[in-house]
Amino acid sequence: MATTNSLTQHEVDQEDLEIDERIYDLYDLYCHGYINRREFLKRAGAITVAGVSGLTMAQALFPRYAEAQTISFTDERMKGQYVTYPSPGGNSGEMRGYLATPQTDGPFPTVLVVHENRGLNPYIEDVARRLAVEGFLALAPDALYPVGGYPGNDDDGRALQKQLDRAKIMIDMLNSANYLHSHESSTGKLGAVGFCFGGGVVNFLATKMGDKIHAGVPFYGSAPPAENVASIKAPLMIQAAEKDDRINAQWADFEAALKENNVNYERHLYPETGHGFHNNSTKRYNEEAANLAWERTIAFFKQHLA
After folding, report:
1. What was the pLDDT predicted at 136?
2. In sequence order, what DSSP letters do the residues of the chain get, joined into one string?
3. What is this structure's pTM?
């Protein structure tokens, strides 16, 4: 390979590409809607490290969903289908989600899978399939269904989700959890896992559902208001990234409230990881941490949803 000083944008091997921390910080702003794609690329382009353009690094962070699929939608161990169900009080009165069912005899313990702030993208559908092959009935609702569903790309998805009434999105997610809990193939045991925005939704559901939810696993999700923590009855497994200042800044108050209210919880902080480390479609992915976090998640659900 040529030296880094002679690399062009097209010659950089993305597998070996080192991403500067400043680019990760800009990507975090972009992912959470604080800057748009154009501004992200503009700011990244002003950075150069060892002859490698920040624009090259920035483009390497965009998701590659087809390459990231781990369980095929035709996998014989499960069946995936889209379902619609009522959602009174939500953004349109109806919701749609991706339901992944094990190809074994039910009933099954259930897990709600909550997406990031851009709708039901292929990564989240893959997470639902991963749960199904582990024996769980998994439902991944699409908050964007009231405006036509996930549009096929994250930029438009993020913009659409931002337009929706946030409080009504939470009602849609609560209705989705209730739909799954009462599904004819459910054992009545309900868990929830979510990522980023979805992690915050898991914490919200834990405060709202009482003993109807039996386990929650928020990945780098916003903490609920401290005054609502007393309502949490489900055990929580909190998955956190070391380099995630925005979320980690909430931890001290969240932990104090969890302890004060005797909530059963455990927290895992993964060294050298950033926000989104479980998402294997982008360069933020940390394979070792993601695999360990997922092993812990599955074991946690099997413990509490059996």
Report:
1. 98
2. ---GGG--TTTS-TTTPPPPHHHHHHHHHHHTTSS-HHHHHHHHHT-EETTEEHHHHHHHTS--HHHH--S-TT-TTEEEEEEEEEETTSSSEEEEEEEEEESSSS-EEEEEEE--TT-S-HHHHHHHHHHHTTT-EEEEE-TTGGGTS--SSHHHHHHHHHHS-HHHHHHHHHHHHHHHHT-TTEEEEEEEEEETHHHHHHHHHHHHHGGG--EEEEES-PPPPGGGGGG--S-EEEEEEEE-HHHHTTHHHHHHHHHHTT--EEEEEEEEEETTTT-TTSTT--HHHHHHHHHHHHHHHHHHH-
3. 0.88
